[in-house]
Amino acid sequence: MDNGKDPLWFRLGISALLMGLFLEWLMPLQPLDVLSVSREWFGVMYVFTGALLLLGAFCLRLPLLGPLYLFCTLAFWAVVIDRSGEPFDPVSSLSLLRQDVELLASTGSFGALSQDARMLVLMIGWALLVYSVQSLALLRSSVLLFAGATLLYLFCLETLLSLSVYGDIIKTSALVLLLQGMVHLSRLRESGPVFRIPKPEYGRWGLSLAAVVLFVVGVSWLAGSLAQPKAAAAFSLQQAADRLANWVKTGYGTGEAAAVTGYNLSGEEEEMGLPLQQSSRVYFTAQTPFPTYWRGETFSEYNGRKWSEVQSDVKTGYAPGTLPEQTDKLAPEQRTITQKITFEQPLRQSFPLFGGGRVAEIVDMQLSPDGAALPAAIERNVDAGTVKVMLDGGQPQIEGYTVKVAVPDPNPERLKQESGADPLHVRERYLQLPGELPQRVKDLAAEITKGAGNRYDRVYAVLNYLKEHESYSLDTKVPPAGKDFVDDFLFATHAGYCNHFSTAMAVLLRSEGIPARYVKGFAPGKQEAGKSGTYLITEGDAHAWVEVYFPESGWIPFDPTPGIALTGGSTKPASSFHAAAAGGDFLKNVAAYALEGFRLTLQLVLEHKLVFAIGTVLAGAFALAILGLLPWLGLLPLWLQLYVTRRHFPGRNELLKSANPVWQALTRRFGAAPAGCTAREYIRSLPVEKEEIRKMLYDFAADWEMIAYDEGPMERSRCIAFLRRCFRISKKVA
């Protein structure tokens, strides 16, 4: 950096405000745990940023400032390594860096670098960013680019991650206003000798500016606090990416909102029927003797739009340990197995224990490395056989757990022989139906089960009816207001996914006096390649099914979803094109698909003709604008020299190069200068009628000759005026 003319305390003030903007980039990330670094890393980065800004405020020459920046970066890098738990050894660290450089040169992959090397690259990049931003502010009086990027970054956190950054936006706006006011004073000082600013004026300017900004920000804060939004729930980066992809796929917000497959841990059940977008993110890895469904929660109350659970038989306790109430309710036919769950991302909020049956024992809980090994609070739903781990902000994250579960035995022959009355508490809780349930749903249930002799046959009659008469689809809609979800599915849309099929089966069975409940969890997932007994369960495996009560065996699971997405698959063939082409008449099928594609395209255009018309007009206007700007593209280097890349006092060669577009434009318009003609003689011979342009040309020629013949340096203000004059003449003559 070249030495500036503003007082040192003024440059320190600008640097302090820049420090505030840099903090707004780091501080919102600290509670999210989105970086694979410790929390101490953020504290080191705060001090590191402040040290860099302090060095830069002295505006030292780059040959002196560069080594200082490098030393500072290496010193804080050593602190980061030391705080990570390993004592810093300069010799071993340099040896490791040398190996990383050789590895990078041979493989070309940054992923092969060690963690220490990646941290050093990150800190060097951060130091370059700090230097660039501070240089723009102190040397070129420009802060709007970084300020705009900071505000855009905060808005992205608000939109994509649902973080409450209202206060951060207010603080950033205040910092931007203060910075813009301070660099404006520097810009006035750079304009020329007429704007020499006495040092006391800096103080008066700063105090006045601070008072105005505090008033504006205070009013904005007061107005916003009257309508402060409620705190948002925790949200992962992957969910943010899924939300963004869903926004694009649904026509940029013009269609009905869609949900993303996954397990809802918020505790608030939404209305069913939203269209779904499949997510392939791995949610947890499971070790189990054989594949099972992963039941999480059961629901007993259906109100016509969604399910809920009555918390009447919930007991509290701590894990790990045996759950006596759960083991007491096990049927003799049930077998107990051990299953181990490892989450892809540690959980920070309350969640149900997923298992292949009723949870009989919690063997252990795997906590995050920095968490204390404390017992985890749990809530046990004794009747449902489910367990929920209760977490709050002060508890460690859960990385996984091991449980013993009782897996039901759905033996058809045994279930067909079962008889007897259902217990009173089962009938009261699991035969509930909304009073507004349409009669035609109950009539359909009676029609489906007519002729079935035992409970098992009646259950399978309903299951087979749903699989044969309804179709599987993720492209669904929430039923109209006031309409029952099951009635809409069975008699209107005839298409849905697991929520539709399972709810319909539970309601149809309850209509026939058969206790049933809605279960939410995950399908078995996909076996990991080369690892027997290990399964990968993704968010796309999130599933719902039904459990039916049998007097002797208890609750038995049934899945009515056709072609159940055990691995997140679909009932449709992988490629209907290949299925059709396999018949032999390949060209006919190609023509049919091409004709269908054209028809769908034409239909899309007609349905959105206004959008396509506006798009066509805008595209045409953009093309015309590009054609109109072609003659001015040659002026781009001059514009960059004047407004973007100019950092230092313009030199003789830079000024002469800036004049080339003027001579080229004059030659194209009026012809080349005769041999032996001076610049002033050539300019005076031009047939220019407008007095304004003629005067600019005379001033240009005088300055050009002074620069070309090296008659002495011009003042900074005159050089800038010469650059602007070159740009204006080139535009007008071209």
TrEMBL record:
Transmembrane regions listed in the UniProt entry: 12-29, 41-60, 67-85, 119-139, 144-163, 205-223, 610-640
Top-level taxon of the source organism: Bacteria
Matches recorded under InterPro entries: Bact_TGase-like, Papain-like_cys_pep_sf, TgpA_N, Transglutaminase-like
Pfam families, A to Z: TgpA_N (PF11992), Transglut_core (PF01841)
Record domain Transglutaminase-like: where: 490-562
Keywords, alphabetical: Membrane, Transmembrane, Transmembrane helix
Protein name in the entry: Transglutaminase-like domain-containing protein
UniProt organism field: Paenibacillus albilobatus
Gene: yebA_1
